[in-house]
């Protein structure tokens, strides 16, 4: 191998790692045309050196010692696809300190320690790219950082977790309860054995923290993302939503108004004509609204061996191009905007509420009175056929109200003797024109 | 103005030009944070210096002499948003020869003379960026060149002309004929007084030539794009399409199989579950299929003052960042793949045919016989209630067949005495799984 070879150390040889190896081998000629360099995988860090692999490797290529990559002076770039926080964080930090560039698909790490790692990289004149960490095969980070560099992004709504989107799609399609569909998703390999990070919304929250940081150019941390998962969603919620013209999805929302920011992940009702409403199964999509550009949407596979590998190897191409130009670590813009988070009085949305109430006369008047007292007006009210003895079911969709107002209404509803229980409540996102 | 100011010459002060001026002024601080430079518009080339402008300019800023920009050594970057081929081509060429970088929104020019201008730029170490030339506010060129640099793109389907998409959307919504809707679109400013370049598909063809060149990395020229416009589309076609579960859209298709390429623009039937089927009005969208990534889709406003201006100014940001790094003109990869165009025997698709036939017994058998002889099998056949005396109407959707086979079937149909006329024929594009 001559001067025109770039040597890469690969950390992790799971699904994505194998995809990266395949892509580099299959597209060697194309990659050479674009970068002027051959890409050679010099070392691969694995947990078990002796395990049988689908990709055949030469002797000595696999190692279980991170030092074999980190202290190898021949290796210019480390590709980290092992996942998890430690030891990935330690390895990446060390790689950067050794002057190696880093490409990672690790959203957990970037959401939690991105700022730290990017600052080490800046000090050492190294690149850290992480396109694969959000929405797999969709080049959304590039779009935010470069495509919309001239615009001011006001809102991003994303379906950024394929597992939960698959579960909610199936719940809608089959009318089946959460637990049953989750089990099926696990059998099919769409959900992990421990599904908590997906179904509790944490995985989506990590991606929204990354999108918010890049889109709004503020140093956003994971704790600032309000999270609610989908474990409580019932098939009835999904069906009632549909009856009223909405689709129930787990969405991340990052919104900026008058310089103040909110970021959240929650199951929410999307209007049927919302660009994200038709995103089904394990697909991901992100709607980006810019002051000047208006509404755009990016759609594609959110995970999977090859889609994620394309994002990783495209980042690798960028690093190598920058190496040739000698400009690594100099193109990144650190978050520079002042971060101000919205208070609950400043977060505005429409809400869907499903209530079980006493089936007696005057209930509706008393309910609407509680909303009126908090100055929350109602867009739609639907009284359902009685399901149980002495209980009626009522669905309400409010006009835009603050989270603070909604909490006050909820308090009143909970204290009221006509309300048996608040069955569910969801944020509502309108369609194209709202 | 000090060392940290980059001086820009703006050619054209129409809709997009005014948007560019507004965006640079409104976002001066953000642009400074990203580029480390102030952007100053030094000269603006206009046809009429004395015309009243919505944007106020200092004295001496406007000029009607191109030399004032081209020979001004202070100007680093020329932004061309005047449109048309000449004199834009001459000006851009001259700007590059003077060592100035160029950002342009000019699809006509880039589709016809892009290769020439890019080669002059490469010689002089200058940048030419043209994100705004395709699909306005959608950063699709960046996605193709960078986001998917590691993948092999096999197909792109685009709704890349807002005017025709608006017209077809309205024809569907109102059942109105083409001429009437065109007239309305002209009144509303969605279509030009001379609508030929839009409705004949030429504007879309230019964009597809650009997408094909970048996506497939081949030197594609405009004449190689097969074009058919929408002037012959009838409300009946639109309605019959809808009845059969399809939406009629003007789409550009660029497809690559076994190293051979086809690029076309035509009204086509999209399956209702195709990601582009729900793209309505003046919006644009491009579906990109990659061997590794699978299916992705990019959606947004295809034109308009501010969306187009964001693409122009984002390109400007990239040029300025590259100036700071001293790497202009060195990142572009010229098309390097060998270009092989498919013959009609190699272009495969499904087709929709609407026929008026003699209303007599045995017609259907004779029709299907003609398809069978060319080995074209039928997916759907729909016989419509008789519309006129002695005429029956039949709609057929074929399974996948070559363009060559389809031509042979058409010949047979035209010669047959039972076929009164071929009312319409369209290519059909399936949904997600096809």
Structure characterization notes:
Two copies of one chain form a homodimer. Chain A is an alpha/beta fold. Chain A folds into three domains: about 5-135 and about 305-325, Rossmann fold (3-Layer(aba) Sandwich), CATH 3.40.50; about 145-300, Dihydrodipicolinate Reductase, domain 2 (2-Layer Sandwich), CATH 3.30.360; about 350-430, 2-Layer Sandwich (Alpha-Beta Plaits), CATH 3.30.70.260. The first copy, chain A, is about 35% helix and about 25% strand. The first copy, chain A, has 14 helices and 17 strands. In chain A, the strands form two sheets. In chain A, strands 7, 8, 9, 10, 11, 12, 13, 14, 15, 16 and 17 form an eleven-stranded mixed beta sheet that branches. A six-stranded parallel beta sheet of chain A has the order 3-2-1-4-5-6, with helices on both faces. In chain A, α1 (about 15-25) crosses α12, α4 (about 90-95) runs parallel beside α5 and α7 packs across α8 (about 180-190). The interface between A and B is large, with 53 and 53 residues. β12 (about 295-300) of chain A pairs antiparallel with β12 of chain B.
